[in-house]
Structures are given as structure tokens and as C-alpha cells.
Amino acid sequence: MIHKKRQAQATPESLHQIFTIPEAPDSTLGRIEAEISQNLNGFLANHIVATEKPLAEIEKDFADSKIPEQPQYVSDHTHHLLDKLISQSVHTSAPSFIGHMTSALPYFQLPLSKLMTGLNQNLVKIETSKAFTPLERQVLGMMHRMVYQQNDGFYQQWMHSAEHSLGAFCSGGTVANITALWVARNTLLKPEGEFTGVAKQGLVKALKHYGYDDIAILVSERGHYSLKKAADILGIGRDNVIAVKTDTNNRINLSALKAECKRLKDNNIKLMAIVGIAGTTETGSIDPLTEMAEIAKQYQCHFHVDAAWGGATLLSNKYRSLLAGIELADSVTIDAHKQMYVPMGAGLVVFKNPESVAAIEHHAEYILRKGSKDLGSHTLEGSRPGMAMMVYASMHIISRPGYEMLINQSIDKAKYFADLIDCEADFELVSKPELCLLTYRYVPQVVQQYLQTANSQQRSEINDLLDQLTRFIQKRQRESGKSFVSRTRIEVEKYDGSKVSVFRVVLANPLTTNEILDEILKEQKLLAAESLQFLPQVLSKVLKS
Amino acid sequence: MIHKKRQAQATPESLHQIFTIPEAPDSTLGRIEAEISQNLNGFLANHIVATEKPLAEIEKDFADSKIPEQPQYVSDHTHHLLDKLISQSVHTSAPSFIGHMTSALPYFQLPLSKLMTGLNQNLVKIETSKAFTPLERQVLGMMHRMVYQQNDGFYQQWMHSAEHSLGAFCSGGTVANITALWVARNTLLKPEGEFTGVAKQGLVKALKHYGYDDIAILVSERGHYSLKKAADILGIGRDNVIAVKTDTNNRINLSALKAECKRLKDNNIKLMAIVGIAGTTETGSIDPLTEMAEIAKQYQCHFHVDAAWGGATLLSNKYRSLLAGIELADSVTIDAHKQMYVPMGAGLVVFKNPESVAAIEHHAEYILRKGSKDLGSHTLEGSRPGMAMMVYASMHIISRPGYEMLINQSIDKAKYFADLIDCEADFELVSKPELCLLTYRYVPQVVQQYLQTANSQQRSEINDLLDQLTRFIQKRQRESGKSFVSRTRIEVEKYDGSKVSVFRVVLANPLTTNEILDEILKEQKLLAAESLQFLPQVLSKVLKS
Fold first, then answer.
1. Residue A313: which CATH number?
2. Which of A217, A307, B127, B233 is deepest in the core (most CB within 10 A)?
3. What average pLDDT does the segment A102-129 reach?
4. In a mutagenesis test of the A interface, which of B39, B91, B246, B344 is the best target, namely the one with the most A β-carbons within 10 Å?
5. DSSP run (H or E) holding B115
6. What confidence score (pLDDT) does residue B372 get?
7. Could you tell me which chain B residue has the CA closest to the CA of A85?
8. Contact criterion met (CB below 8 Å) for B339 and B414
9. Is ipTM > 0.90 here?
């Protein structure tokens, strides 16, 4: 008998089935699900191909622009996903994947995410989220308290108040930063007399009313790119996000900041916000927040702290003081999907003043009616899933002391790795870890010595070559698939403040061990040796010149 | 022997466990997961309490602002979630929940969502998403083709081009609308001569350079509230989103639109965009898109179509023509988490011109480098989960003809319900369904007759009373927990264009049957009878006056 391949068909019955008949445990998708539930890391290690396939090759599998006319059985499609998508995805939770801010997740997040999908709540309004609304308000309250440490009475008064909000939950740090600066802009250019406010009348009339030639935002040159994006969106303009120089420790230079404030004032450009960074994306450095708050006060501008990465450090009693002054901020961005180990899509901003969100409030006839507690009346996004549940569950299951252990471990691990790099003659530690981030590069010892005495032109030439070397090692290491560090370019003071390419490492994955870090350096040394086969002529030419 | 309650403790070992040891199938969370997998609707029906608890009561369970110092076992916390959160959530997928745009989901979305969480990709860049990046580009290509129907060559050329994008995937329609209008603003106020563009220099310098007194957006009075929000965020101002009158059929009045265009021009206010609606949120009506495109062309402005709800209708060969003219739009918003039956958090905007996104492009040193295919270089959001996989899977498993059946069924069901209402002497159909939305209200027949002959003042008084009745019925029906319709206020031409409160119904859930619709009307009649016990005196007073 010839085996005939089954062919799926779209019929009213088959459609009814996909909405009413569960995936069988022994179906392909059912088996995958069981495998993920029982051994996620094993599943990923087995199904994700380690060595890198060129993107152009992968794209061939995703080239059809027609929506299929022929339905697929779930099992057939699952095989397709395994074969073409999952095999070529990135093992972001691998302990040797230390290049970006993704990490392993606690196991309980997996079934919870399925529960969230099954409930399919929409947090924009109470009518489609009910208890999820007070839950999200509580999560915002907890995060607010973590930052601002107000007393019980404060939270009793404001946490569930319809006309107020302690913050806004959103999909991530970028939206959180935009929301904070949106509030700052609308508060600065608020209604006054006949002027009904920037929210209603727009920026042109607002600046005219207040008599400013322009408005600006100050942040260190390590500021996240989302701040320029925010300025673009908000109509302020990217050029009006002015990058202030950093010191050798990658923190904002306070004299330079003060000078900028004065320059703006002298030019009738109103300073809208100063942004402090608590954990820069590239080096994990923390700005001097207390001093910045003081300057913001003096210039009567909004003080925002971008703690998307570093905010969770507040959960550590040992390291909390690194962020001293954060409680002086008018708004603070924190990503729960970073150091709070929640899946992608959980960011938030908290506001010191529960009335701040009034500046961005909006209403509609069918939802978000005045006086309602609908969360959508003061969020940038509209419909949103119940991600707050994932943060809530993590805070209860891991608890504050559990988070402290995780945070402390990460910082200790970064210090270990920094020491390791320092002990290696052929590596140069470029930024020391304040939190669990650091940057470094491979520089043969002889070149390091040369760099110390070289003149500016010579240093620049050598650094160009070293940049090539860094890019080569990083790319080859990524392609070989055992481990991953990222790379970036940062200004280094000892090289006349010019940008050099560096390896960037984020040590937040609790499963990353010291042995893995040893291995990563070893692999880089081997790759460097490989590349030095063709680099030395060039290098020696420069060294001789 | 006294049973001692176990107490969880945060130790390095317990933390290591939650990252490495899966939830056991017989654990509380494991059992819940199995229940959801085997019978989601049963699980929700069993665990969500039907009758409504006052929000103030629920808030008491979410009142603690302290992050716990004491960890909870996963099983204990799961019991807590079941008891306090899930029991008081909303059964958004119930077939009798026809008040909002949430629906039942296909079963395969549940295990897929878990897979997505397990993979925890970050779509902002290829380094954390690899094959998910071409997959998302393919999904955008498919949606683009659904709207614009270009040929194979077009998609081969642009779908995977690093410097181009056919759209932007995002968390929902609001972000999609903001993104579209952001592109429109930046394209209108682009660099020219010494002016380097609004993205860099901001709105004030941009308007000065181009010599406009202001810029504005035109949309019908049925436009979604996110458009005003977008105008606020983008610095244009909510007042500059000008609401154009609709006709009796809830479509934009073209003469009024033309008059507005002229008025703006005469006042040196540059028309930035005309927004057409393909499926208004309140009534599901579709604007005359072809004619609007013609007007937009005449005034050389961006033409955006908000098809967040109605866009999926393009999958139906039978009803596709309802959206004729959408292919003339410069940008189109579509929510996959609405009529494409994907879980919350999947919206997108497509652009006719693959070069449009250049207007909002941005780069950073550590990611989104020039020439990279990182999706984050032209999205409003930064880090984003791999939701595009859910859309991709649905398009393959359901297929275009499957979607057509779902769409057609929904529209047919709405027509059935409209007929049902029309046949009931005591109900008034306020807006007929074009798609699967309709609005109506309860008006005793005698009052309907009176309204026909009443003068304007009398009509207004009666309508105020009827508004109370509508609110009463809707609230009681929601509270009793068997079914849910929403309510809104819309302008009704025959009542002198004044706003009246109406029931609003969305019939997208494939599991909603005609019998359920019959029941919902019956319940409303009973509730009306109940309320008329106290209303008649007031009514008769008005009727007699």
C-alpha cells in the first residue's frame, strides 16, 4: 500500500478544532513542549545549531511573501519551525553567551508564560484585565518603593488611586525612557493662562508661549541610543540631546555638565531634563546621581535616571549604595527583563510624584473614562499583555534576598573576570566593572608597551589595527558558536579620548561559571594567535615607523 | 505529629535550582499547566469567579508595597495566584464575552508561547535573534503583500534589504500608529539645504525652515484615541488632530474633509497626514479610502490607514473589496492580536515605500550598526520578544482560506445579530455592521415612537434617560458574569448629531453561537424590565410634558 501524505484542508470543522481541541501530548508540538518543560537547556543545546550559518543562507528559508493558500497541520509546521527557525535562533540563555543582556530564566517563568497567554488579558482597561490592574499597580508600587522608599501611608494613599499612578508598565526600557521624557516635556510646557499646554497645542506654540528658543536634554556620552530616539519622536530633535564628556571611569564629568547647563541658559535654550545613567549599556557605569540631582534642582529641570540595567541593584543591600541619589530623580526607568530575570517584554518607569502622569493622561468614550482606574489612560502603549504577573511572581518566589544573591554573584563574577584579564599580559582591561559589565581587548604585551611611549599619531595607527583584531576575534568566536561576547566602540581617555573597539561582557547569567570565563579567554587567545599570522607584518611596519 | 509548614529560604542552592530544575509535572504549577493544555476553557470556567467582586475588594489583595523578604515556594505562590489573581481575572475568550476585541485563541498558540519564552530572543538585533530577524521580515513582507499586492520581484528586492524595511513590527496598534505618523512627520519635514531635518533639529526649527505656522492631521470623529496620543507625543499637539464629521454610516464626510483641507491651507497650516479608518473601534465602519487617497494626493500629504481592526478582512476574497483603496495608503496599521487570533502584543505597520523607514532610522555603536539588518534600527521600541513567530505560525497553520472563513463567519454573525435586534420591537440598532461590530440600545417601542415626533429638547431629555438605562443594563449584565457587551457614546445623526450611549458588540470569537446571541438579548430584556420599575415615572413625566 502506498503511503499517502496527509494534506490539511481549511474547513469549518478543521477551524473549529484548532480553537477547541488541545494539542495531544504525543503530537510533535506536545513532545517539544514536554522536552522544553523537562530540560530547556538540553532542548536548546540539541536543537540550535552551534556553528553559524550565513544570514543570507537563512534568509532563503524566509523568502516567500505570499500568505499560504494551503494550511499546514500543526505537527508539520512544528517540524518546519524546528528545522528552519529554532535551529538557527540564538541560545541567549547559554552560560557562555555573555555578550548581551539576556540570561537564563527561572523555570517557573515557562508555565507562567503559557498561563499568561491562556488568560490573554489586556491591561489597557479593567474590563479586560480586572485583578491584573491592581496587580500591575502593586508591582509599580513595589518598584517605586524600591527606588523612593516612601512609607506605608504614601503607598496606601497613591498606589490604587484612580487619578494617580506611581509609574507606567511597558514593553521595555526604550518606551519607559520615552514616557519619562514625554512627562518631562509636558510638565515643563504645561498650560498657563491662555496657553493650554504642549499636549494640546504642540511644541511650536509652547516654545513661543514660554519664550524659549529651544529645549534640550543633557546626558553623558554613554547614554543609551533610546534617548536620542525619544528626542526625535518628541519633536525636540536628536541634536538637542547633548552628550556630556565622561571621566576615565565612564561617569559624567560634572564640570562639563555644569558648563553645558550654563551655556544653554546663556543661549536661551531651556534645559528640559538631565538624564543620569545607573548602569551604562556599554560599561555598566553609574553616574554621580546625587550631584546631578543638585544641578537639576538648580536649573529647575526634570531629573531622569535611566536604570534600565542597574535598577535591580537596589535589591542588594550590599550594593544599593552604588546608586545613591536615585531617590532624588523625578523618574526612573527599570527593565524587569534584564536583571530581574523576567522574559523579554517587561519594562517600566516610576515617578517620584504620583501626579506626574497627569501630564500625559488621555481618555476615550468606550474605555479610559475619567475616574476609571484603567491603566491605559497614562501609558504610551494601548493594548498590553499581563507581563506584570511575571514580575510579581518573580518578586514573590525569588524575594528580595534572593535577588540580592543574584546581583551580588554577578558583580563578584565580573570582578573575577576583570582580575583574570588583568593577570593576562596580552589583554587590556578597558573599563573596570562597577556592576557586572566590563570591556577589554586583546593587545599583545609588546604593543601595550609601545602604546605607552608612542605619539598621538602612532597610537591612532596602532589602535586602528587593534580595532581590526578585536572585530576579527569577536566575529570568529561568535561564528564558532561555543561562546559569545559582544563588541562596541568607546572613547578611552588615555588614547586621547578617541574611540577604540572593545569586547563587551555582561555577566548576569547565574549559570555562567568561572571555568566558562577561563575558557572564553583561552579561546580568544587562540583566535588572536590565528589572526596574528597575517597581522604582524602590518604591525611591525607601524612599530618600526 | 504536628505538621510543620515548610518555609522557603533564599540560598545559593535554592536559587540555582529555580534556574536548573524544571517544575515537576505533579507540582501545583505543573498540574495547572496540564489542565490549561488539556482544557483551557474548562480551566478558565472553573477558576474565574463569574459574579463580579468590587474592585476595591480586589485591591485589598494587592495592597502591599514591600518586595517580599521571604521567598515563596513555586507551588505556594501558584495557589496564591489561582486564589487571588486568576479567580478575579476576565474570561476574555468566553464565547459570551462579546464586548471587546479579545477572542478565543487557537490551541497551538499556548505551547508556542512557551517555546517563545524558552527561546527568549530579542528582536532588536540579529545577535540575539538570528533567524527570527528574517522571519519577522518575512511576516512584514506577507502583510505588505496582503495590503499592496506587489509582485514577486518587488519582495525579492526589498524584503531582506538591509537599508530598507517594508514595515515595523511592534506591540500593538497604538505604537504602529505613532510609528506611521512619526515617519510622516519626519518625511514632511525632511532635511533641505542647511536644515538637517526635524529628526535632528526638532519641530520648532523645522516649521520655521519650511515656513508653516503649524501642522495638522485629519481623521474622522470615529478615529482611535491613539491618534491624539500620537500627536501629543510627536509634539504636534492633540488639538491639531482635527475630527471631521461622519455621515449616518459612520464614515468620514468627504465634503467636510475637503473643506477642512482648504481651511488649513488658507491658514498656512500644513496638512501632515490624512488618516482613513478601516474598521472604526466603536462601529467597525470603513472610510471611503479611494476618495481620501485622492484628496491626500491633491494636498501632497501622507495618507495613513488605521486598519488595526479591519486589516485582516483583506484575507477574505469575499470581503476584501470593502477596503478598496487601502493599497493607495502610504502606511497601514494592522493588529495581529485582533482578527488574526494571535495573543496580546502583536501589532505592525507596513509602508508602501520600502525607503520610508529611513526617516526614523537610528544607529548605535554596539548594535544597529550601519548596514546591519538589525530590526531595531527603525522601530519605536528597543528590545522586543519574538511575537512575529506567533503570526508566522498562524498564517501557515490557518492559511489564507482559513482566515477567510473566520472573517466571513464573523461578519455573517454580526448580520444575524443585527437582524435579531431589528426584529425586537424594544431595541434600536444604532449602527449596522459593515464588519463584525455593531451598536444598539434598548428603547421601549412607545419611546421610539415618541422620539420620532418629539422636538429637539424633548429628544435630548429622553436620550439622557435612555443613556442611564443603557449604562444600568450594561453594568448589571457585566456584574452578573454570564455575558459581556461594552458600551460607548457616539454621535447619532437622527438625534441632531448628539452623543448617545449604546451597547457595543464585537463578534470575532469563532465560538460565539447564534444561541448565545439570543440569550444575551433575552438577558438584556430582563434587566431592562427590572430597571423600568423605577424608570417609568421619570419617563412618563417626560412623555407627558
1. 3.40.640.10
2. A307
3. 94
4. B344
5. helix B109-119
6. 86
7. B131
8. no
9. yes
Residues A130 and A232 in one domain: yes
**Given this model, what pLDDT does residue B7 score?**
81
Euclidean distance between CA atoms A380 and A36, whole angstroms:
34
Q: CA torsion angle for A411, A412, A415, A416 (degrees, to 10)?
A: -140
Q: Which domain holds residue A427?
A: 413-544
For B428, which DSSP code?
E
**CB distance A484 to A477 below 8 Å:** yes
The residue-averaged pLDDT of A258-272 equals: 98
Nearest CA to B281 among B325, B338, B231, B345?
B338
What is the nearest CA distance from B346 to chain A, expressed in angstroms? 9
Which residues face A278 on adjacent strands? A286
| Cβ atoms of residues B304 and B292 within 8 Å | no
Low-confidence stretches of chain B (pLDDT < 70) are: 1-5, 365-367, 534-545
Residue B469 lies inside a defined structural domain of this protein: yes
Place of cell 498590553: A384
Number of domains, chain A: 3
- Longest CA pairwise span in chain A (Å): 90
Provide CB contacts within 8 A for B272, sequence distance 6+: B181, B184, B185, B188, B215, B216, B217, B236, B301, B302
Do B62 and B105 fall into the same domain?
yes
Taking the CA atoms of residue B186, residue B187, residue B191 and residue B196 in that order, the dihedral angle to the nearest 10 degrees is: 10
Nearest CA in chain B to A379: B229
Q: Residue range A209-226: average pLDDT?
A: 97
Question: If you measure CA to CA, which chain B residue comes closest to A229?
Answer: B362
A4 lies in some domain: no
**Residue A438, phi then psi, degrees to nearest 5:** -155, 160
Average pLDDT over residues A65-73: 97
Question: Are B269 and B216 found together in one domain?
Answer: yes
Angstrom distance (rounded) from CA A343 to CA A387:
9
Q: Where is pLDDT greater, at A540 or A326?
A: A326
DSSP state of B63: -
Is residue A460 in a domain? yes
Percent of chain A with pLDDT over 90: 88
Mean pLDDT along residues A35-63: 93
Assess whether pLDDT exceeds 80 at residue A445: yes
CB pair distance less than 8 Å for B225 and A362: yes
Residue whose C-alpha cell reads 492633540 in the numeric block? B238
Residues B333 and B438 grouped into a single domain:
no
Which of A175, A223, A497, A507 has its CA nearest to residue A347? A175
Cα–chain center distance at A182: 19
Minimal CA–CA distance to B451: which of B418, B421, B432, B428?
Answer: B428
Provide CB contacts within 8 A for A6, sequence distance 6+.
A73
Of A73, A89, A105, which residue is a domain's last? Answer: A89
pLDDT at A484: 95
User: Based on the domain organization, do B57 and B146 belong to the same domain?
Assistant: no
Indicate whether A440 belongs to any domain: yes
Q: Give the nearest partner residue to B207 out of A131, A204, A225, using CB atoms.
A: A204
- Pick from A59, A173, A200: which is nearest to B238 by CB? A200
Domain end (from B328, B351, B386)? B386
Q: Spell out which residues of chain B touch residue A132, defining contact as CB-CB under 8 Å.
A: 85, 89
Measure the CA–CA gap between B271 and B257, rounded to whole angstroms: 12
Of B439, B430, B417, B404, the residue nearest B512 (C-alpha): B417
Residue B300 burial (10 A CB sphere; 0-12, 13-18, 19+):
exposed
Task: Find where cell 500644513 sits.
Answer: B270
B306 closest CA partner among B183, B497, B178 = B178
Q: Work out the average pLDDT over A168-183.
A: 98
Amino acid B1: pLDDT: 41
Residue A1 has pLDDT above 50, yes or no: no
Shared-domain flag, residues B262 and B323 = yes
Regarding whether A164 and A204 lie in a shared domain, the answer is yes
The phi and psi torsions of A302 (rounded to 5 degrees) equal -65, 140
